[in-house]
């Protein structure tokens, strides 16, 4: 699949088929996401693919009501995390730029988009969500204290084909100086 086709075809999917996603497919997606750029190649993003029904239920209950339906139908909930105090920092522990801690979120976002695009290429759908009880997600996944919770992705085979929402084009977003 060409990149432009993937970018134009990927949608936020909120209804999924009742079909499992194999461990091999999850590994393939994570390997592709690892190609995303990161601050000084810090590679801070981690993925916790939750398929266990009880663990999924606990994460779903930690989310606001408007995000629960997408997660309830998804066979996999992916809790994305970021390694703390690495991206955007110098070796002495000080921030490298005025963006401070923001670089780890930027790196995580780049990786999450690569994850979503690879999933799309393989015929899967995702929706990236930002609201959850982070303490619950960290506990359910066994996430170490050296990491913090980032976005949650619902993942599975789509059971819908949403239309592309209106997008701003270069005449609205590009400034050539």
UniProtKB/TrEMBL annotation:
It comes from the Bacteria. Residues 8-62, 66-157 form the Nitroreductase domain. InterPro entries: Nitroreductase, Nitroreductase-like. Keywords: Oxidoreductase. Pfam families: Nitroreductase (PF00881). SUPFAM superfamilies: FMN-dependent nitroreductase-like. PANTHER family: NAD(P)H NITROREDUCTASE YDGI-RELATED (PTHR43673), NADH DEHYDROGENASE_NAD(P)H NITROREDUCTASE XCC3605-RELATED (PTHR43673:SF10). Belongs to the nitroreductase family. This is Nitroreductase family protein.
């Amino acid at each position: 699949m060409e990149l432009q086709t993937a970018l134009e075809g990927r949608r936020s999917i909120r209804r999924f088929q009742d079909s499992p996603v194999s461990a091999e497919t999850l590994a393939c997606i994570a390997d592709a996401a690892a190609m995303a750029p990161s601050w000084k190649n810090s590679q801070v993003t981690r993925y916790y693919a939750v398929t266990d029904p009880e663990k999924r239920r606990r994460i779903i209950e930690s989310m606001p009501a408007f995000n629960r339906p997408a997660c309830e139908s998804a066979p996999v909930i992916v809790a994305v995390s970021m390694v703390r105090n690495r991206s955007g920092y110098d070796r002495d522990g000080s921030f490298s730029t005025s963006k401070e801690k923001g670089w780890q979120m930027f790196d995580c976002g780049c990786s999450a988009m690569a994850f979503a695009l690879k999933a799309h290429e393989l015929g899967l759908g995702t929706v990236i969500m930002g609201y959850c009880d982070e303490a619950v997600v960290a506990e359910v996944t066994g996430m170490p204290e050296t990491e913090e919770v980032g976005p949650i992705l619902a993942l599975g085979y789509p059971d819908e084909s949403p239309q592309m929402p209106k997008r701003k084009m270069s005449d609205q977003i590009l400034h050539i100086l």
